[in-house]
């Protein structure tokens, strides 16, 4: 049996942490290793516990989840951070993803949906929503100048990047190019490593910023 994914819960509300504990208790391959009530404690506990995944609230005292996400991802880029929020307000979620978070979960969704999403995060298989893709396009459409930098991606990697920017899932990309999902995951892994990025939102933003994707 493989080792369970180690999870750190970060939320200043006890009832919220309790609800998350109850959901995760039903999943054998996810193990809670600690809980924090603010961003500063989250950073300290990440250093101590080295979790695989952090479930991060946004609005907390002392330091919010956005700033904590930025600091943790800078120090520990391998840690996957999922924003846990009661609101699907795209602005905060977009900022969190730009700071390195891998995705987000709404507290009020059906708990049965959590497992598939958490597993997809663990497998690096979560696509962007259409709202986020549109917001990225809007942000870089308004810019007059692009940064210039040589594109290090192969032809196929560039093709994968263009579909990622449109919000395609791994399975849809695989179907488009008649390749396996495993091959798609490898392409994405190589692309992110080449560009030193953490997730699809950062990747899409970077590609628009450098003019590697046409704003159609």
Description:
Helix 3 links the parallel strand 3 (53-56) and strand 4 (80-85). This protein is 50% helix and 12% strand. The chain has ten helices and five strands; from the N terminus they run E-H-E-H-E-H-E-H-E-H-H-H-H-H-H. Strands 2-1-3-4-5 form a five-stranded parallel β-sheet, with helices on both faces. The model has no long low-confidence stretch (mean pLDDT 81). The protein starts with a strand and ends in a 7-residue tail after the last helix. By secondary structure, the chain is an alpha/beta fold. The protein folds into two domains: 5-122, 3-Layer(aba) Sandwich (Rossmann fold); 130-209, 3-Layer(aba) Sandwich (Rossmann fold), CATH 3.40.50.2300.
List its salient traits.
216 residues; 5-stranded parallel sheet; alpha/beta; 5 strands; 2 domains; 10 helices; Rossmann fold
Structural topology:
Blueprint: E1 5-10, H1 14-24, E2 30-36, H2 39-49, E3 53-56, H3 65-75, E4 80-85, H4 90-98, E5 103-106, H5 112-122, H6 130-141, H7 155-165, H8 170-177, H9 181-195, H10 200-209
Count of helix runs: 10
Calculate Rg over CA atoms.
17 Å
**CATH homologous superfamily label of the largest domain:** Response regulator
Sum up the overall morphology in one term. Answer: globular
Outline the low-pLDDT stretches: none
Helix-strand sequence: EHEHEHEHEHHHHHH
The assigned CATH architecture of the largest domain is: 3-Layer(aba) Sandwich
> What does the main sheet amount to?
5 strands, parallel
CATH topology of the largest domain: Rossmann fold
Taking all residues together, what is the mean pLDDT? 81
The fraction of residues in strands falls at 5-15%
CATH class of the largest domain: Alpha Beta
> Which sequence of strands runs across the widest sheet?
2-1-3-4-5
Q: What's the β-strand tally?
A: 5
Instruction: Work out the count of structural domains.
Output: 2
Portion of residues in helices?
A: 40-55%
């Amino acid at each position: 049996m493989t080792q369970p994914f180690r999870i750190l819960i970060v939320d200043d509300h006890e009832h919220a942490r309790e609800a998350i504990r109850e959901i995760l208790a039903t999943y054998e391959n996810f193990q809670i290793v600690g809980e924090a009530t603010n961003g500063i404690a989250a950073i300290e506990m990440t250093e101590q516990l080295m979790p695989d995944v952090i479930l991060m609230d946004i609005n907390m005292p002392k330091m919010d989840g956005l700033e904590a996400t930025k600091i943790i991802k800078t120090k520990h880029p391998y840690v996957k951070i999922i924003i846990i929020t009661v609101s699907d307000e795209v602005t905060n979620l977009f900022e969190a993803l730009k700071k390195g978070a891998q995705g987000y979960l709404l507290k009020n969704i059906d708990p049965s949906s959590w497992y598939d999403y958490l597993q997809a995060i663990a497998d690096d298989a979560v696509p962007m929503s259409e709202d986020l893709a549109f917001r990225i396009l809007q942000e870089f459409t308004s810019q007059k100048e692009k940064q210039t930098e040589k594109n290090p991606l192969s032809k196929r990697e560039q093709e994968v990047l263009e579909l990622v920017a449109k919000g395609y899932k791994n399975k849809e990309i695989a179907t488009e190019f008649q390749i396996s999902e495993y091959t798609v995951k490898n392409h994405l892994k190589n692309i992110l490593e080449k560009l030193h990025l953490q997730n699809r939102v950062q990747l899409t933003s970077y590609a628009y910023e450098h003019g590697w994707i046409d704003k159609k």
